[in-house]
UniProtKB/TrEMBL annotation, chain B:
<keyword id="KW-0418">Kinase</keyword>
<keyword id="KW-0723">Serine/threonine-protein kinase</keyword>
<dbReference type="GO" id="GO:0004674">
    <property type="term" value="F:protein serine/threonine kinase activity"/>
</dbReference>
<dbReference type="Pfam" id="PF02518">
    <property type="entry name" value="HATPase_c"/>
</dbReference>
<protein>
    <submittedName>
        <fullName>Serine/threonine protein kinase</fullName>
    </submittedName>
</protein>
<feature type="region of interest" description="Disordered">
    <location>
        <begin position="1"/>
        <end position="29"/>
    </location>
</feature>
<feature type="domain" description="Histidine kinase/HSP90-like ATPase">
    <location>
        <begin position="56"/>
        <end position="156"/>
    </location>
</feature>
<feature type="compositionally biased region" description="Polar residues">
    <location>
        <begin position="17"/>
        <end position="29"/>
    </location>
</feature>
<dbReference type="InterPro" id="IPR003594">
    <property type="entry name" value="HATPase_dom"/>
</dbReference>
TrEMBL record, chain C:
<dbReference type="InterPro" id="IPR051932">
    <property type="entry name" value="Bact_StressResp_Reg"/>
</dbReference>
<dbReference type="InterPro" id="IPR036513">
    <property type="entry name" value="STAS_dom_sf"/>
</dbReference>
<dbReference type="Pfam" id="PF14361">
    <property type="entry name" value="RsbRD_N"/>
</dbReference>
<dbReference type="InterPro" id="IPR002645">
    <property type="entry name" value="STAS_dom"/>
</dbReference>
<protein>
    <submittedName>
        <fullName>Anti-anti-sigma factor</fullName>
    </submittedName>
</protein>
<feature type="domain" description="STAS">
    <location>
        <begin position="164"/>
        <end position="275"/>
    </location>
</feature>
<dbReference type="Pfam" id="PF01740">
    <property type="entry name" value="STAS"/>
</dbReference>
<dbReference type="InterPro" id="IPR025751">
    <property type="entry name" value="RsbRD_N_dom"/>
</dbReference>
<keyword id="KW-0597">Phosphoprotein</keyword>
Length: 132, 158, 290
């Protein structure tokens, strides 16, 4: 625990893409631990893309925004493209009013859109998108 | 999610002396640990729901509270956050008062400017919180702590 | 409070209790007579309201407190007076009618006192008490009435704003908001809220903001447009602004407003033509996935 704090946020590996989702109850320590864990995983797996689903986040304050921006920059330096997907409308409005536009962070409407942008496509048989 | 159209919420009951702001409910929370930051967010969210705020206004107030509470925790060495439900001319509002006894702010105007930061944030804390709220006041003196008072009034289907 | 005050108070309370139904009926009758201008309230509603208020009035008098402030301190009485006034404000009754309602209660009450008491001193003292009590009620009722009307105005102006910012679906995954009128902070908030919600509901990839109906674009309006575009982008969708008429384009250039990061088109048709290719999900290196 002292050696390596974990944020308790699962990070899945799908080929060269890492998939993760942030939950609502993310305190500052967990946010930092998550950044560290994800950065390390990118380095060890050589991932080319990272999808972070934030559709469950009801609040993104300047600290969480900072975390997402740092993560994007760090990942880019390691050769991975980060997409933050599924931001809720109230969160987007609040961030803009806070004066934060998440410069340098790529966004997608949903996890599925984000995965598609990272080179993952749904099969031809699945016509309908599942509800987010 | 609240849609802009559709059903109307019940109007908040108008009691008491109209035309006059008076606290109806007030709770004070300590902000001394990271866990406290989470608790404060929950308490503020609950208060905004009670005041009948729409989802966007809820998010605005909770985010502002998070910024202010973090400021008190990081720069003020901990403090308190008081949540009040206030009324003014038929409108309900949430008033947040965040107090700390830290080093204070020597230049309040500068601290309200975007990009001003002495810590790990984005420097949008104070100025950003001001934009998310309707009324905003900072009282601070170097060495004597900081008191921020911020109110947001109900705008949705009052 | 002197002993004679207490005696008068007990007397009035007694009259109220004993003649509650008569007073309520008489009050309703007086209101019906006054209501030349008409009100939406039915006879049944008036009776129900009168019974509750008369009951609250005697309960308030039985408890302690100065008669002038009972209407503020006694919760039940306060609520009844407030509700009475709000009902009239919402029902579209004239301010005169709303204030006459409380006056009529005064008359009904005084008549009831006069029926049982024949001593002029006692009647005078009772009248004084009733005046103190009901003048305060009248003042509260008036304030609440004004407040109720203001609330209606606020709600209506909000509804008007909501109606004037419809989000329409132009194409698969393409939404449009035709803006008409100016774009201030309140309007921007509503546009953003409606647009972002529609984007989420439809999983729309492009939002077109058409400003053909916006008379002028100054720095503030441009800032509000930028805010909306930024919020749309945070959601993961794209934004196109259309309907920039030549004079507005000139103003934007002269003011030095930078809209260079935003895709702009002259007409809604051009914007739609620009939007449709954006709805094809790009592959990892920007190539079309389909």
């Amino acid at each position: 625990m002292n050696q390596r704090p974990t944020a308790g946020v699962p990070i899945l590996r799908l080929g060269d893409v890492l998939v993760s989702g942030l939950l609502n109850e993310l305190d500052d320590k967990s946010a930092l631990a998550f950044t560290e864990e994800l950065t390390e995983t990118i380095a060890t797996t050589g991932a080319r893309g990272v999808l972070i689903d934030i559709s469950r986040l009801e609040l993104v304050d300047s600290f969480v925004a900072r975390t997402l921006m740092d993560l994007s920059t760090t990942a880019r330096l390691l050769g991975a493209r980060v997409i933050v997907a599924g931001m809720r409308p109230p969160v987007a409005i609040t961030l803009v009013e806070l004066g934060i536009e998440l410069a340098g962070v790529e966004t997608a409407l949903s996890a599925e859109q984000g995965m598609a942008a990272l080179g993952w496509y749904r099969g031809a048989s699945s016509q309908e998108r599942p509800e987010p | 999610m609240t849609r802009a159209d559709g059903h109307t919420a019940a109007a908040p009951r108008t009691t008491g002396v109209p035309g006059q702001t008076r606290p109806q409910d007030s709770t004070t929370h300590t902000v001394c640990t990271e866990e406290d930051l989470l608790h404060v967010r929950h308490a503020v969210r609950a208060a905004t729901v009670l005041a009948g705020f729409g989802i966007v206004d809820q998010t605005r107030v909770v985010t502002a509270a998070s910024e202010l509470a973090r400021n008190a925790y990081v720069h003020g060495g901990g403090g308190t956050l008081t949540i009040e439900i206030v009324r003014r001319l038929g409108t309900t509002g949430i008033r947040l008062t965040v107090e700390d006894e830290g080093p204070g702010i020597s230049d309040v105007d500068a601290a309200l400017t975007d990009g001003f930061t002495t810590g790990a944030g984005l420097g949008h804390g104070l100025g950003g919180a001001r934009r998310l709220m309707d009324d905003f006041a900072v009282r601070s003196e170097p060495g004597r702590g900081t008191v921020v008072t911020a109110t947001r009034w109900h705008t949705r289907r009052a | 409070m002197t002993s004679s005050d207490t005696a008068v108070r007990e007397r009035v309370t007694q009259v109220l209790r004993a003649n509650a139904d008569d007073i309520a009926d008489r009050w309703v009758q007086l209101q019906r007579e006054q209501a030349v201008l008409g009100s939406d309230l039915t006879e049944g509603e008036l009776h129900e309201e009168a019974d509750a208020l008369v009951a609250a009035l005697s309960a308030a008098l039985e408890g302690g407190g100065r008669p002038q402030s009972l209407v503020h301190t006694h919760e039940d009485l306060n609520r009844n007076v407030t509700d009475l006034s709000l009902r009239r404000a919402r029902g579209g009754a004239s301010p005169t009618l709303a204030s006459l309602a409380v006056q009529a209660l005064k008359q009904a009450l005084l008549e009831a006192v006069r029926r049982v008491s024949h001593e002029s001193d006692e009647i005078l003292a009772a009248a004084l008490l009733i005046n103190q009590l009901l003048d305060a009620a009248g003042a509260l009722s008036f304030e609440v009435y004004v407040e109720g009307r203001e609330e209606i105005i606020r709600r209506q102006s909000r509804q008007l704003l909501e109606m004037s910012t419809p989000v329409v679906r132009l194409w698969r995954k393409v939404l449009a908001v035709p803006l008409i009128g100016t774009l201030d902070t309140a309007r921007t908030q509503i546009v953003m809220e409606n647009l972002l919600q529609a984007i989420q509901d439809d999983q729309a990839l492009v939002a077109i903001i058409d400003i053909t109906g916006v008379p002028t674009v100054d720095t503030a309006v441009a800032q509000h447009l930028m805010q909306t575009v930024k919020a749309v982008r945070l959601m993961g969708a794209d934004c196109v602004i259309s309907g920039i008429r030549p004079p507005i384009a000139q103003t934007i250039a002269q003011l030095g407003i930078d809209l260079s990061t935003i895709l702009t088109r002259a007409t809604l048709a051009d914007a739609l033509a620009a939007a449709i290719p954006l709805t094809d999900t790009p592959g990892p290196d920007g190539t079309d996935a389909r």
